[in-house]
Amino acid sequence: MMGRQPGFAVAAPAKLNLYLQVIGRRDDGYHLLDSLVAFADLGDTVTVREAETLGLTLAGPFADALDAEPDNLVLRAARMLAEAAGIRPAASIHLEKRLPVAAGIGGGSADAAATLRGLSALWGLDVPPEDLAAIGLRLGADLPVCLGGRAAFVRGMGETLIPLTWRWPETYVVLVNPRVAVPTGSVFRGLGGVFTEPPAPFPAPDSLAAAVLGLRERTNDLEAPAIRSVPVIADVLRRLEAETSCLLARMSGSGGTCFGLFGAASTAAAAAEAIGNAHPRWWVGSGRLLTDEPAAVLPIDDIPSNRNNELCQIS
Q1: Are strands 160-163 and 152-156 parallel, antiparallel or unpaired?
Q2: Where residue 46 sits, what CATH number does that domain have?
């Protein structure tokens, strides 16, 4: 058991599928994936504090897209963790929602993962990582990798994680979402039962150029059906590719957020500014690709007041 603290804050970073190939489907209808997942240093923040009952408050630019009803993924995660631990769920949870909802970047899963990690600390639980992952998988396929918080190859429905055995080169990203909902179910149905052969092992890159080459040899199989469903995604990809410093543009998950990879923070920030100015209705952010370390679970007393809302900041 860990010592109890009055509260904790955990960043919930955006999840990026650097590639995503659908290699089959189980008899129960769930699709089998092969994907390389990393994270970006922009996203939401979950804060948990002691309370007599379980409650959730919401703030941030995308808070209006959610509600604090019992089926909210954050509250479901809290109740499931308490049930597994045999305790009464009691905590005040605050979600600063900066990521767009249902956008292919794992926002809800990242929030639920941050909740599980924050409440484990708040309630003084010493839950083995594999047990947390099992709880998470009941909430969604992205939960295990979001709980791990490190770059990994993801297989199966999301339950099999294979850590990188080499270091990903330093990379910066621009994320763009056209603020149009993408129906995940129709995107998967748009595959028409056609699946990709499992790829060869990803070669260990010795440079960012080599890493990008490895990604170009793979695809996001959901990109084409997503564009058929929401054509503006193609406009987003073309706009990212128009930036001369963009090394690769691709859609993440089932859409509609797309990302561009860049070799420097300055070129990524400049591209994000240019795209945001040209398309003010789009959501645009830039940051660094995170591959090695999960977000820290920080006691609230250790966080300067001017950083409380900047643990995972978006431009």
Answers
A1: antiparallel
A2: 3.30.230.10
Whole-number Å distance between alpha carbons of 161 and 244: 34
Q: How confident is the model at residue 314 (pLDDT cuts 50, 70, 90)?
A: very low
For residues 179 and 155, membership in a common domain is answered with no
Report the largest interatomic distance among the alpha carbons of the chain, rounded to a whole angstrom.
55
Distance of CA 173 to the CA centre of its chain: 14
Report the alpha-carbon distance of residue 254 to residue 31 in Å, rounded.
Answer: 13
Q: Is 38 helix (H, G, I), strand (E, B) or coil?
A: strand
* Residues 259 and 230 reside in one and the same domain: yes
The amino acid that residue 18 corresponds to is L
**From CA 234, how far away is CA 63, in angstroms rounded?**
27
Number of domains in the chain: 2
Looking at the fold, whether 116 and 49 belong to one and the same domain comes out as yes
Residue 309 has pLDDT above 50, yes or no: no
Does 264 map to a domain? Answer: yes
Tokens of 167: 């270091």
Say yes or no to pLDDT of 6 above 70: yes
Which residues, 6+ apart, have CB-to-CB distance to 224 below 8 Å? 190
Domain ranges, residue 284: 172-290
Coil, helix or strand at residue 100: coil
- DSSP annotation of 300 reads G
> Residue 108 carries which DSSP code?
H
| Banded pLDDT at 304 (limits 50, 70, 90) | very low
Compute the distance between CA of residue 209 and CA of residue 215 in angstroms, rounded to an integer.
10
Q: Is the pLDDT of residue 25 over 60?
A: yes
Residue tagged active-site, from 15, 34, 97, 221: 15
Catalytic residue among 34, 41, 44, 142: 142
Please tell me whether residues 137 and 208 are part of one structural domain.
no
103 with 23, same domain? yes
One domain for residues 157 and 178: no
Residue 308 included in any domain: no
Asked if 97 is an active-site residue, the reply is: no
